[in-house]
Design brief:
By secondary structure, the chain is α+β, with helices and mostly antiparallel strands. Helix content is 38%, strand content 21%. Helix 3 packs antiparallel against helix 6. The chain is elongated, with a radius of gyration of 25 Å. 26% of the residues are buried.
């Protein structure tokens, strides 16, 4: 049975175990090696953030592991502007995706009953080759800026898609039902803590009550196109930020730390949590805010 040629029909569960990336110090211009004092500052700050944040859900797979390794380089001039760096982590409930994949595979197997899968595989291979030729023809017409040729190719593509749908008739409905029977929901958690940012714009905000956080907001910035984590964020600000100003759908904040703060130091933080509303808000409320506040030099 040619499942390779029917790969678009079957969801293959992904392996999500990844290695952590080193923490990164952001900035512009030439860089230099981090000093021992800067490395000690990074290690202390990243370690405290790690301890202050709640643990991710048990058995969820990390898609991006937080790194506690200090950046080996920084940008020149950070003594005056401050070092900006991040702690980042992403987790996903792979068990939900695996269950959904199994449901989809079962739906494909059920749909395949009574069909000549060898013949269908040959037909799909032929359609894939035809699709490649059409796309190459479209590219050549686009490069020539030949509008008439492009219109002709679009007609070929529309006709091709009809034949492709006819070839796959009988597969779509079972797949759609399998997705309904095994939906993926509340399956992601993305954490990003930025130290020493100079400005931020928060889209479509609503105030969020988080005991211990100085300011917190719910952001309606989710995107259904981000299938792994389509939700909006909950964001908290600590340290040296101004009162903020409204501009359109955004709420803007600028850093306002005083001059003369010894280098290196943490002057402000942005704590961002992307997850379902309930999970994101519960996560922020479980943060050990006193430990993060103790890092801020005023």
């Amino acid at each position: 049975m040619r499942f390779q040629t029917l790969s678009a029909l079957i969801l293959i569960p992904l392996s999500l175990g990844l290695s952590p990336r080193p923490a990164r110090a952001d900035g512009d211009g030439p860089s230099r090696p981090s000093t021992p004092a800067e490395k000690a500052f990074f290690s202390k700050t990243l370690g405290t953030i790690e301890r202050a944040l709640p643990a991710p859900p048990a058995k969820w797979n990390p898609t991006e592991k937080p790194s506690l390794t200090p950046p080996s380089t920084v940008f020149e001039g950070v003594e005056k502007s401050g070092i900006r760096f991040q702690y980042k982590g992403k987790w996903f409930d792979q068990a939900q995706k695996t269950r959904q994949g199994q449901k989809l595979q079962g739906a494909i197997m059920d749909s395949a009953q009574g069909r000549d899968m060898e013949a269908l595989g040959n037909q799909m291979e032929s359609l894939q080759a035809e699709q490649q030729k059409i796309m190459e023809e479209m590219l050549r017409a686009s490069q020539r800026q030949d509008k008439a040729a492009m219109a002709k190719v679009r007609g070929k593509l529309a006709e091709f898609q009809k034949r492709q749908q006819q070839a796959l008739s009988g597969f779509s409905a079972p797949q759609e039902q399998a997705l309904k029977d095994s939906p993926i929901s509340d399956a992601c958690l993305e954490i990003e803590v930025t130290v020493n940012h100079t400005s931020i714009g928060l889209a479509k905000t609503a105030p969020l009550a988080v005991p211990g956080a100085e300011r917190a907001f719910r952001l309606n910035d989710g995107d259904p196109g981000r299938k792994d984590c389509p939700y909006g964020r909950a964001v908290a600000l600590l340290g040296a930020w101004d009162a903020g100003r409204v501009g359109g759908d955004y709420l803007y904040f600028k850093s306002n730390w005083r001059g003369g703060i010894p280098h290196p130091a943490a002057k402000n933080m942005i704590i961002s949590v992307r997850a379902s509303d309930q999970r994101a808000e519960a996560y922020l409320r479980a943060v050990k805010w006193d430990e993060l506040k103790a890092l801020i030099v005023k």
